[in-house]
Amino acid sequence: MPRVQTEPKQRTLPWLKWFALSATILLLDQLTKLWIMMEFSLGQSLYVNGIFNLVRAHNEGAAFSFLSDAGGWQRWLFSVISIIVSLIIALWLTRLPRQRVLEGLALALILGGALGNLYDRLTLGYVVDFLDFHWGNWHFAAFNVADMAISVGAVLIIIDGLFFQGSDETDDSSDATAVNTDKK
Predict the structure, then answer these.
(1) pLDDT for 97-131, tens place per residue?
(2) Which among 30, 72, 83, 132 could bridge 55 via Cys, Cβ 3.0 to 4.6 Å?
(3) 184 or 2: which leads in pLDDT
(4) Distance in angstroms (rounded) separating the CA atoms of residues 85 and 114
(5) Structural domain boundaries of the chain?
(6) Distance, first Cα to last Cα, the chain
(7) What is the pTM of this model?
């Protein structure tokens, strides 16, 4: 009886690459925040060019300083939310089909960013922000590497949902139809 050769199974778990990306985002975020905290005092700013400054800012709230002056309870609320969302995303990544690359990339970016800001909240009580874009006297809310990763991840989730989710479902259903037709 001839031996049937099969393709070798992949030895790594497909979601490890997503966790590695999340860990890289977390590390990059923390290293940049550490540098800012070592080089700048709170509120200190360095003019870089006509639209960008480096600045050390502390955000005790959420995006755009939402609830930053709420008295301290928001630290724990946002920490609990970050933990729950991070656990959901981690579980989602472990169950994500291998072909869902854009979705995996988006989720990994969001997870890394969420963990970066969570670490700040738990250890410092606030999130360190340092990227300050401005136009004239108008300044966009200062942000950090974690915030960038979360924002890019959110945009990629939207793009994936708008342009790729439907095509995957169609492809899966046509494959299922072809299999069912072959069995008849």
Answers:
(1) 988 999 999 999 999 999 999 999 999 999 999 99
(2) 132
(3) 2
(4) 8
(5) 16-41+55-165
(6) 29
(7) 0.79
